[in-house]
Amino acid sequence: MKTSPPYLRPRLDFARPRVWLLAVGCLLLGFWLGRLPEHPTGTSLQANSTLQVYFSPDGGATHALVHLIQQARRQVQVQAYSFTSRPLLNALIAAHDRGVNVRIILDRSHVEKRNYRTGHYTPKISAALAAFYSAGVPVWIDDHYLIAHNKVMLIDGRIIVTGSFNFSYAAAHFNAENMLVLRNVPALFARYEHNFQYHLRHSPAYRPGLVLTGQFHWPRWH
Predict the structure, then answer these.
(1) Which residues participate in catalysis according to the annotation?
(2) pTM of the model
(3) Cα–Cα distance, 196 to 174 (Å, whole number)
(4) Distance CA 164, CA 56 (A)
């Protein structure tokens, strides 16, 4: 039988009290961390919970999302990186016009263009942002990160839309994407709602001439 060289063999000697104390301490720490309520590892589904998934290209995600927005009665909250989908843009503006509370958080690329060679930004308003502003839909710009890359919609306090699917024409027709729709999962919705409010607090409301002051800085080790 082959044996490992001495320098490859485990060196933990469980006959020593220190090793036992270390092992028990690690177990207790893991148990304690696992019980922290603010870091749940999962959530349970209810009897009326439903999940649907859509895949791109041409998997019906845009059509399904337009329908969900059209059915909204109270609130639609949006976090978006890219936003070039005319059907989704029109559906959100129509929802706002009929009295639905529509709130949108966009990435900073909707108000400025970055030169990746120099690192400088120049003002450039996206067509979607201009349309939302003209329609009176409130928009915030998340300038706290290198990229605000979330693609999320929260509808009427019970529907979560998430996944890789950007709200764009390319995502619907050219890209390999996924979009997940979850209904009636209250604990999970609460987590997404909390995260939306967190990003809203540090994002300035858009107005013409807005100057972003948030700047992402690479960690020193980069």
Answers:
(1) 149, 151, 156
(2) 0.77
(3) 28
(4) 10
Pick from 7, 63, 57: nearest CA to 178: 57
Rounded to whole angstroms, the Cα distance separating 120 from 125 reads 16
Nearest by Cα to 54 from 45, 64, 67, 46? 64
> What is the pLDDT at residue 104?
98
- Tokens 């028990």 belong to 24
Q: Report the C-alpha gap between 149 and 53 in whole angstroms.
A: 20
| Domains in the chain: ranges and CATH | 50-201 (3.30.870.10)
Judge residue 17's burial from the number of C-beta atoms within 10 Å of its C-beta, 0-12 exposed, 13-18 middle, 19 or more buried.
exposed
Residue type, 8: L
Nearest CA to 106 out of 75, 145, 134 is that of: 145
Identity of the amino acid at 92: L
| CA dihedral over 79, 85, 88, 92, signed as positive or negative | positive
Residue segments in the chain with a per-residue pLDDT below the cut of 50: 6-10, 12, 14, 19, 24, 26-41
Question: Within 13 Å, how many C-alpha atoms sit on residue 148's CB side?
Answer: 29
Q: Please report how many Cα atoms fall inside a 13 Å half-sphere around the Cα of residue 15, on the Cβ side.
A: 1
Cα→Cα distances 157→37, 189, 194, Å: 21, 7, 12
